[in-house]
Amino acid sequence: MASSITKSFVAPPALSERIQKEEEFFSKPFLMSYSGLNRLLYSPALFYQHYVLKQRDDAMDQNMIEGSLIHCLLLHPTHFDNQFVLSVQEPPSDNPRKVLETLLMHHKDLKAHGDTRTELAEFGDAILDILRDANLYQSLKTDAQRLEKMITSRHEEYWRYLTTMEGKIVVSQDTYDFCKAVVDKITSNPTVMDRMGYFGDSFNGITKENEKEIISFPEALPFGLRGFIDNLVFDPQNKVIRVNDVKKTGKDLNSFSESIEYFRYWIQAAMYAMLVEDQYLSRPEYYAGWKIEFRFIVIDPYMQIAPIKVSDEKLNQWISDTREKLNEAAYHFRKRDFSLPFQYLLHEELTL
Predict the structure, then answer these.
(1) Quick one: fold of 186-341?
(2) Which of 13, 105, 142, 287 is most buried by a 10 A CB count?
(3) Distance between CA 265 and CA 259 in Å, rounded?
(4) How far apart are CA 237 and CA 86, in angstroms?
């Protein structure tokens, strides 16, 4: 899934509130994810704003929405309704739309006090009150005629959308169709399906887990490590644990190496490998002689899909480089100083 760092900066709270939030943050164990470390390396001040002050503004661009939807449809399709809602293709005209959005605020207040009504037709009295206040449809002779103007199939569709969209990612029908086509193409690709462990059976012993959460607490760090691995495959015949990360990229397939550097995906690969090593390979009674393979399953805007394996040498180098970055993060935590990037905290002045 593509990563994005919000570049806006919100004005900090008052000093007393900031101190309180800081004490609260450092009083609890922190789990550092790839996205957290990437944000810290990009701007410690943004990390402080997001995680310590909890001033969060994580707008999702189209590529991130598509990546999240592809993850859901591929790895956990039954979770779609919990995470996404389809946008209305033909929203109402301005006046009915404003009435329905006003009714939504009324509905939320009633729901908080135990009201169980959900269908638009059940809110007739409230709709009539809103119409009177807005002076809409008052030229019609009866309330029944006014309600007939409001309770239509088109308005009911928009009402269902309004009442189910809160906390979910809104996707257009075109976006859904594209992502569904991508998933269909992935599942019809035998190479990708093999790498992701979908051909496992009792004969080859291959098993898989999707969206596996792994947490570890390295003694040398003042925080823990956490990762949600898209696809984890155990191959006992070859003594390999395959770590697969599904990536929706905004560029063509041939340019993915640029994205690895730009988004620091190499840190994500390294952290996942470190977590898998700590969780599994540290147990020789079960995994003696096993090794880790890391792959990106890359999807580009042109629906080109390919698994890209990271060599052992490159993965080891990424792990070494990531350990250095984690030590830089540890410095910020121990000093409780997120005012500047690591190298600027160590030196009064840098020379280019």
Answers:
(1) Lambda Exonuclease; Chain A (3.90.320)
(2) 287
(3) 7
(4) 43
